[in-house]
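Possible regression after last week's pipeline update?

I re-ran a chain I had predicted before the update to compare outputs. Posting the input and the new output here so someone can diff against the archived version. Not blocking, just want to make sure nothing changed silently.
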Amino acid sequence: MTKKRLDRWYFRDVVDTSSRLFKVLTQQRLRVLAALLIALVGVLYWWWPGIVGSGEPTAEPSVLVVGNGDLKEAQTVVSRRLVEEGLTVAWIDAPASWCDVSAVLDQTEIQPTLGIVISLDAPISFESCDVSPELAAQKVKESLEGLSVTHSVVVTGLTQSADPVVNALVELGQVVVDPEPLLAGVDERVDCLWWDDCVPDENGIGYVIVRDSDGLTLAGQQRVARMIVAKVL
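New output (post-update):
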């Protein structure tokens, strides 16, 4: 082989090797960039509610909860679940009667930026109201619509008494969370859900107790909290 041909062969081999190496490195870099982009999109999707609506915790929280009874007892668990989603939360005590809810909402200085959650214990919630359930529901609905929030949620089903005001709110198109299908009676065993800390029975099958003589257990509160968060986001 002449020196001229040898130079051509050697140069072409070097170029081919360098080209292949460049392509491999470029493909690897593109894969890394694509993976980073996907991870960034996932993080933004997960935290977006908190980014756009976290709010100032006391005056302008993401979520305002107006509750009494069992929901008030679950305040720590519900708040923790909201905070885990990047949201801030403020609580005020709910009145006993639906007839007083509008006044509470109109008078509060707290202005939630994303959502409001309301829960009153039945049956006192409607028995102490001196107007029809339909009229009480209409007033509550008007007050909720006057707030600058994306989501308003009424929680029911925490007691065994049906609430006619909540039924009227449903007729008006109000979003209602009813965790009753996930709850049970006092000391009644129920099947585990994926997040529960289960207790094995005599056959090794896991169960939880969601309500005892003091009210909702931690497992019961977790179920209520998760259903609320799912509607607020």
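Follow-up from reviewer: compared with the archived run. The mean pLDDT is 86. Marking as no regression found.
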